[in-house]
From TrEMBL:
Lineage: Eukaryota, Viridiplantae, Streptophyta, Embryophyta, Tracheophyta
Species: Dendrobium catenatum
Coiled coil: 34-88
Protein name according to UniProt: Disease resistance RPP13-like protein 1
One GO-annotated biological process of the protein: innate immune response-activating signaling pathway
Every R13L1/DRL21-like LRR repeat region domain range: 912-1030
Length: 1203
């Protein structure tokens, strides 16, 4: 990439330093030239820090730095040729040693071949020396007279190790997904669209609706909110999401529609067959289709989708299109266009907080939010209310320290005013890029080669980064670990979007504007082309001096041929990616012209064979032929000594691999899944650098003589991922024992599979034999992921529950003979367990948790499945009973998801499932379902979450409200419950058991219950410590019923203590709340209250004295914000107050005599707060925003205005 040049210089210098000490360099008389080049580069490095801004703004500097950049690439190419020469020499020496013991005739033939190849090597060696001297002179000429004039020392991005630049985050989660949804406007827009889309209409079918707005403003977010709504899901029979973007292919769009509708389009190879499949799938069905990011209408709509939909869909079908251009909506004859507006300042600030403060730190970060809000608001203003820009700046802030100095530094950065960026690219996106660590910048820019608007596999992206040389070596870390960390940082900075459809977030894409930025910054060396003439024109019109990377997206033809004339001049090409599935042929001589190619990606094309010239790609590291109809590999593949990755997965016509492939001793990854291969050639044990291997056990002894056997795995000590297929073919268990899997310290993922077979075909001998085979395949203790497929033994291997102490993910499928699951509860780090098709299991009992007798004292007070988050059972036809342990043993304390599918005979769930999350309860139509759940009879249930999908209160009819009240009433939990969360409940009254039964409840949170009109009897809950209520917009008054269900005049409550254990009380977003009535009696209330929070309650006028000043004299923290009618008095009575945070209230009495106050923060109003002789012995600091600033010391205070 053009950026950062100094990183290229540093990398080349390091290589030269090592090269100067090597024997081969001395033999080739390169040492003097190497040292001269070192001196030149060291001079250059002194003047280069980070040069992107100069490249954008200054034309003369741009041209000079581009020339330097290309010179650095040329030098790097030459040094890699030198490395390839070293590899060849090493291979030759190994061959000589082998031949030394051969027959005399063999030695003669070998001597002749060495002489012939020797002449070629002499020529190659000579050329390397000549080229090195030429490049040295060229570089000297370029910098002569220029370096003294270079006065800029730009250092936007940190230059140290990546760890030191990213704020500490010890979480192991691969990614963090943040919501873009803030404020009421987008919710209102979504509800309006949903209402329109589901309304009956007699006009032509299907009706089109449009979302219109500028790039980055949130069109896709709004469309996704509509698409995911439960009303849409229940209204339409087929819901389809299609990303269109600018460079689309009609066939790909049709395949996406088929896949999204639940079909399989892989067998359809042309437009006609795909069109027919689409028509069949939507025929007579009510369809909802989202067309995201449409730029033109003729081909995608008028000539294709409109015609297809009109042929078959049922009445009431709808299309929702997102576009930047109102003309697109008009041309598609949209009956309604929803224009998306920029975010208001407050909503923008909320979104910035979501991005800048990770989800798990939102509560802890409240102090920082108050302190930084004024700077954050100014940043939001600079983003012009664009959610994309706000997310980008928030992602960048998430890696900075939370100090005013850090945020102000970004706010005042000169990069806000950078000139030369395209009009559509907001400077915020450029700043977010600028502050990336320089190592990660190149990885980010490489993503400009991927198709716009399409999701791309994360693992493939990481492999491409590694094989292009973009990942730095780090001590004690593999390249994949470093690449994974780089990717997490891009996610954290909101520069890439994860596909939330996939559980493990395996795919990602870039937003259009971020993608445009990456393409702009790489415009001098990368090209994404849709037609061959674009490649030719880039050379002829001088746009790109030397093309380094080419991504061929392809046009709209049925077939395309990669011709020599198109690429033969691109001699500096390093990466060639083809995403055009119509490519069917490659010129025979093409690869002879591309000798610097490192990456060749032909995935999904129609190429049936590769030319012999493939063997001339001496620097090739990554060859991806997956999903092609290729039948064989050329014999010249043996010349690719630098090859690290060979991917032929899903090449259904590929039946054999050439035996010479086993000469590729630097191969790290060999992927063959989904091919017609029946074995691997003999010699896989020689590939001792393999990290990823899909190994196929050969069929019989005849083939085995020419095949690799399981025994050869013994020497592959670097393996990280291993897939062992067709294990039923192993007849002698000594083979699997000799594979020595337990001695492979780097193995992290293992797949053990047999071919599918009917359980009735399995005899006892077969079952016993496969049990021994699997028992001998004992993996190392470091293993993290294990998948077992179609195992037909009666019992699982013993090592499964006794040895895999580091296992995180376990999936067992198709094990129809297996009769029990033993000892899995003792796996301390297991987070996800899937079991499917175990049709012989009838009972899951204590043996599931531990191999030993559960009565053993060693398990008392233990925690089993201590890290389990997801537990899934599927297609277990015979499973009848899931027994309870019935002992004082905790089980699955962190379980988040319990999935049970197609287990028709299962009668009950055990008591020790401590947490239960019941979602989408609005779908329950028959309350007998919830009553039969018998939650009250599960004494071990400690945490319960009851939630409905979000809906507008105006959409709730009386019948719906009555029905949900009955559903919740029947979900009465056990008295032992400690944590209860209720979300989006739309009944008018809360369940009666809430205040009358939950005597052990500690934590209660009620959010989004907008129909609820009162809170009853919560004061009688003796152990309730924290109560949050948010969004109860129908509550107008909180009175005596809040404390007790009965009449407060009842003598039983005289001298009582209500809310006796309450420590935290929080009210938020209660728009109608006007009055908080006083009890006015001799009743103590909340004597332990430490924190009182009131946010966004605009009509509240007062707080009762008994809630603050009588019983609650130990109040430590009070936070009140956006309560413009609230009169706050007598705070000086609260002697233990440590923190006061107040904003947007009309009146505040003097604060004096609060001896332990540590923090005072006031927004908007500051009315004669402190007396002049105020003395606060424990004062630590004070921050206020907007109008005034108060600074205190031990004996005095000063007041000064701030901007």
């Amino acid at each position: 990439m053009v950026t950062p040049i100094n990183l290229l210089v540093s990398k080349v210098l390091e290589t030269l330093f090592n090269m100067a000490k090597e024997e081969l360099a001395m033999q080739l008389r390169l040492v003097d030239d190497v040292k001269k080049l070192q001196n030149t580069l060291e001079r250059l490095e002194c003047y280069l820090q980070d040069s992107e801004k100069k490249i954008i703004e200054d034309d003369s500097t741009k041209r000079w730095l581009n020339q330097i950049n290309h010179a650095m690439y040329d030098i790097e190419d030459l040094l890699e040729e030198y490395d390839a020469l070293k590899i060849n020499n090493s291979e030759s020496m190994s061959s000589k040693e082998v031949r030394s013991s051969s027959s005399s005739s063999t030695k003669v033939r070998f001597w002749l071949s060495v002489k012939i190849s020797g002449f070629k090597k002499v020529a190659s060696n000579h050329r390397i020396g000549v080229d090195l001297r030429r490049l040295n002179k060229q570089l000297n000429d370029e910098i002569k007279g220029q370096i003294p004039e270079l006065s800029f020392m730009i250092n936007f991005a940190p230059t140290g190790p990546v760890e030191s630049q990213i704020r500490s985050n010890n979480r192991t989660t691969a990614v963090v997904v943040r919501s873009d949804i803030v404020g009421n406007r987008i919710q209102d827009d979504a509800r309006r669209l949903i209402k329109l889309l589901t309304k009956d209409d007699d006009r032509d079918n299907p009706l089109v609706y449009a979302i219109v707005g500028m790039g980055g403003i949130g069109k896709t977010t709004l469309a996704k909110l509509v698409f995911d709504d439960h009303i849409i899901a229940s209204r339409f029979q087929v819901n389809v999401w299609v990303s269109v973007s600018q460079n689309y292919n009609e066939n790909d769009i049709l395949r996406n529609i088929i896949t999204s509708a639940g079909g399989d389009g892989k067998r359809c190879h042309n437009f006609d067959s795909l069109s027919k499949k689409v028509i069949d799938m939507v025929k007579d069905k009510r369809v909802f289709m989202v067309l995201d990011d449409v730029w033109e209408t003729k081909r995608v709509w008028n000539d294709m989708l409109r015609i297809l939909l009109k042929r078959g869909v049922a009445e009431g079908s709808r299309v929702l299109v997102t576009t930047r251009n109102e003309e697109v909506a008009a041309q598609m004859m949209a009956v309604h266009s929803q224009r998306v507006q920029s975010l208001p300042l407050e909503d923008g600030w909320s979104l910035l907080c979501k991005s800048a403060f990770p989800a798990w730190e939102q509560l802890e970060a409240k102090d920082d939010k108050w302190n930084l809000k004024d700077i954050g608001i100014e940043l939001v203003k600079k983003c012009d209310g664009l959610p994309l820009a706000i997310n980008a700046i928030g992602g960048m802030l998430s890696s900075q320290s939370r100090t005013r100095e850090s945020w102000e530094f970004i706010l005042k950065s000169s990069s806000w005013e950078v000139k030369g960026l395209p009009d559509e690219i907001n400077s915020v996106l450029y700043i977010s890029y600028q502050y990336l660590p320089r190592d990660i910048k190149r990885c980010f820019l490489y993503c400009s080669l991927f198709p716009k608007g399409r999701y791309f596999k994360i693992m493939n992206a990481k492999n491409l980064w590694i094989q292009e040389g973009l990942i730095n070596d780090e001590k004690n870390r593999s390249s994949h670990d470093v690449a994974e960390r780089y990717f997490r940082i891009l996610v954290q900075r909101n520069l890439v979007i994860l596909d939330r459809v996939y559980i493990e977030a395996a795919y990602f894409k870039m937003h259009d504007l971020v993608y445009s930025l990456s393409q702009f910054l790489t415009r001098n060396e990368n090209l994404v082309a849709t037609e061959e003439r674009e490649i030719l024109n880039s050379e002829f019109d001088g746009k790109i001096k030397k093309l380094r990377r080419l991504s061929f997206i392809g046009g709209h033809n049925e077939t395309t041929k990669i011709q020599k004339k198109c690429l033969q001049e691109q001699v500096s090409l390093r990466t060639l990616l083809t995403f055009d599935k119509t490519i069917y042929n490659i010129d025979n001589d093409l690869f002879n012209h591309l000798r610097h190619l490192r990456i060749l990606w032909l995935r999904g094309t129609k190429v049936t064979e590769l030319p012999a010239s493939l063997g001339s790609l001496k620097l090739l590291r990554y060859l991806n032929l997956s999903q092609t109809p290729i039948k064989e590999l050329p014999i010249t593949i043996q010349n690719l000594n630098a090859l690290r990755i060979l991917d032929v997965s899903e090449c259904e016509n590929l039946r054999n691999l050439p035996s010479c492939i086993m000469k590729l001793h630097h191969l790290c990854s060999l992927t063959t899944k989904g091919t017609a291969l029946d074995h691997l050639p003999q010699g896989v044990g020689n590939l001792n650098k393999l990290q990823l291997l899909e190994f196929i056990v050969p069929l019989d002894k005849g083939i085995a003589r020419e095949s690799s056997t399981v025994k050869e795995l013994e020497t592959l000590t670097e393996l990280r991922q291993l897939n062992l297929c067709k294990l039923e073919r192993v007849l002698d268990s000594s083979q699997t024992k000799s594979a020595s899997l337990k001695d492979k310290p780097h193995l992290k993922e293992l797949i053990l599979s047999c071919s599918e077979r009917d359980s009735n075909e399995v005899c006892t001998d077969d079952s016993d034999r496969i049990e021994v085979v699997f028992e001998d395949l004992c993996p190392p203790v470091q293993l993290k992921i294990l998948k077992i497929t179609n195992y037909f033994g009666c019992k699982l291997p013993s090592w499964l529950g006794s040895r895999l102490f580091n296992i995180r993910f376990l999936k067992i499928t198709g094990c129809s003979n297996c009769k029990k699951l033993d000892g899995l509860g003792l796996l301390p780090f297991l987070e996800a367990f899937y079991i499917e098709g175990a049709s012989s299991i009838k009972n899951i009992g204590p043996e599931f948790y531990t191999n030993n007798n559960i009565e053993n004292d060693a398990y008392q007070n233990s925690v089993l499945f201590r890290r389990m988050k997801l537990l899934s059972f599927e297609n277990m036809d015979s499973w009848e009973e899931w027994s309870s342990l019935g002992n004082d043993i905790r089980v699955m304390p962190f379980l988040e998801v319990l999935q049970i599918y197609a287990c028709p005979k299962l009668k009950s769930i055990p008591e020790e499932v401590l947490q239960l999350n019941l979602c989408k309860l609005e779908r329950v139509l028959d309350s007998s379902q919830t009553k039969s759940a018998s939650l009250k009879d599960k004494p071990h249930l400690k945490e319960l979450i009851l939630s409905c999908s979000e809906r507008d209160s105006n959409e709730v009819c009386t019948d719906d409200s009555d029905r949900i009240e009955v559903v919740f009433e029947d979900l009465c939990p056990p008295v032992q419950l400690k944590i209860l969360k209720i979300t989006n409940y739309f009944g008018c009254k809360l369940p009666s058991w809430l205040g009358s039964r939950l005597f052990n409840i500690r934590f209660l949170k009620i959010t989004g219950c907008s129909n609820c009109k009162k809170l009853d009897g919560l004061g009688l809950l003796p152990f309730l410590e924290a109560f949050y209520i948010e969004g109860a917009s129908s509550i107008k008054n909180i009175g005596p019923e809040f404390y007790t269900n009965n009449n407060i005049e009842n003598g039983a409550y005289q001298n009582s203590v209500l809310f006796r254990s309450m420590k935290l009380l929080s009210f938020e977003n209660m728009d109608s709340w006007e009055e908080w009535s006083s009890l006015g009696k001799d009743i103590r209330v909340m004597p332990c209250l430490e924190v009182l929070q009131i946010y966004a309650c605009p009509k509240l006028k007062s707080i009762p004295e008994e809630a603050l000043f009588h019983a609650a004299s130990y109040l430590k923290r009070i936070r009140i914000c956006t309560a413009p009618q609230l009169l706050l008095k007598k705070l000086h009575y609260l002697r233990f107050l440590e923190i006061i945070e107040i904003g947007n209230i009309p009146y505040l009495e003097k604060i004096s005599g609060v001896p332990v106050l540590r923090r005072l923060k006031i927004e908007d109003y500051l009315v004669d707060l402190l007396p002049g002789d105020y003395n606060c012995t424990s004062w630590k600091g004070c921050w206020t925003a907007h109008k005034q600033n108060v600074l205190l010391s031990k004996t005095n205070y000063t007041s000064k205005n701030s901007n």
